[in-house]
Amino acid sequence: VQLQASGGGKAQAGGSLRLSCTASGFPRGFSFSSYSMGWFRQAPGKEREFVAAVIWSGTRSSTGDSVKGRFSISRDNAKGTVFLQMNNLKPEDTAVYCCVAQNGLDFSSPKNWGYWGQGTLVTVSS
Length: 126
Known about the structure:
Layout: E1 2-6, E2 9-12, E3 17-24, E4 36-42, E5 49-54, E6 61-63, E7 71-76, E8 81-86, E9 95-102, E10 115-116, E11 120-125
Parallel strand pairs: 2-11
Antiparallel strand pairs: 1-3, 3-8, 4-5, 4-9, 5-6, 7-8, 9-10, 9-11
């Protein structure tokens, strides 16, 4: 499965950005709607951090504590795309954001995500 993220860039504190991730290259018998989708981020010198995830149907999602109430995740199965809406951005949100996919429902650990995209850089200035 190949994951291609886009939408990163620069924003001012308090501003918004929306990241997109398109998936392709599914194994035989699988499609985009077979996978839970999510986002992790990693800032320089820091550990990888869970940001958000959504199950295959889009009916249940989870967000990390540091972004709760500011970020939201959604998906469009017809377009094979997952979105991360980031509002009220803070300088500490500066990181490389990676799109991820898995067949399961255990979101928080990076070990459970079998597919990773290359990432897109988000820079938030104060």
